[in-house]
Amino acid sequence: MLPRIRRPRTAAAVLALALAGAPAVGQTTPTAPQGTKPPVTSPGNAVWARTAEEARARAASEKKLVYYEFESEGCGNCVRMEALLYPAFDFEALLIGMVPVKLRDDSAEGKLLVATYKISEMPSILITTPEGRLVFLMQGFKDAPEFYAHAHRDLDAYRQFLKKLDQPVDGLSAAEALAIGRELFARLDEKAAIPYLQRAAAAPKPGPGIRETALEGLAAAQLEAGDAAASRKTIDRLIASAKDADQKERAELFRAQIPLSQNKPAEALALYKQFVKEHPNSKYNERVQSFIARLEPAPAP
């Protein structure tokens, strides 16, 4: 299938910074002398969200991106990254147009995001749209120059990609629609990928293999988006039309994954056994046999 692309301080510290920067009741905040920069009241001089949910809601309302910063207990590099990034004007400039939030990797929200974006190293910085489309991901931290170079390169690439989404889908060639659909899928925006992959599968005069590749990707996007029925219909189309033997075998194996996503292991087991029977010499059989072994009911005592 298609490839996956592949806080400042703790919540208590954020609260302390916010309280420290706020005037007490009945007091007024001194005005900075004209021509001087206002005092920094939080990392990046930004209003950090308290939760991921709040960050996404604010970003959607304010038409901004979400900046997630992940840390873990006892993470020395997390502390080093804060010391290098937070005081810099470059960090303040980066956060313009973003709603930042800091999460522990073992929190409920942190665990879900770490699993979704396959984050395995701390600290990590993730930038997405409010809906979750991947814009930037950095795992681990080396130094500030590398971070800013990586972030600005990926942000610029994303802005260029957005221009492609301004084009009418039905005016795209099969190759153009496939490329956009694949990138949306890789950015974990399966729902947005679906109309582009549908166009790639239906556009006239596709290049060699484009229609079949589009159907393969479309089935995967539909399944990830939660539409198992549509995914099965699409993969059945590919199985019926694929001329490449290897692609057809992959499609048949994908079809067996669909009932697993619906918690129907018996149906998946039957499809895997059928595959082995029909393709006794397939290079995938060793893996398929391991699936069968896991799905076979335990023998009665």
Q: How would you describe this structure to a colleague?
A:
A four-stranded mixed β-sheet has the order 2-1-3-4, sandwiched between helices. Helix content is 55%, strand content 8%. The longest helix has 21 residues, at 144-164. It has two domains: 41-164, Glutaredoxin; 173-295, Serine Threonine Protein Phosphatase 5, Tetratricopeptide repeat. The chain is α+β, with helices and mostly antiparallel strands and 301 residues long. It is built from 13 helices and four strands.
Order of H and E elements:
HHEHHEHEEHHHHHHHH
The CATH superfamily of the largest domain is: Glutaredoxin
Q: What top-tier CATH class of the largest domain fits best?
A: Alpha Beta
Number of helices: 13
Number of strand segments: 4
Structural class by secondary-structure content: alpha+beta
**Number of structurally distinct domains:** 2
Low-confidence stretches: 1-37
First-to-last CA distance: 40 Å
- CATH architect. name of the largest domain: 3-Layer(aba) Sandwich
Summarize the main sheet: 4 strands, mixed
What percentage of the residues does DSSP assign to strands (E)?
Answer: 5-15%
Strand adjacency order, main sheet = 2-1-3-4
CATH fold-level name of the largest domain: Glutaredoxin
How helix-rich are the residues, as a percent range? 40-55%
Shape: globular
Mean pLDDT: 88
Kindly provide the radius of gyration, computed on alpha-carbon positions and rounded to a whole number of angstroms: 24 Å
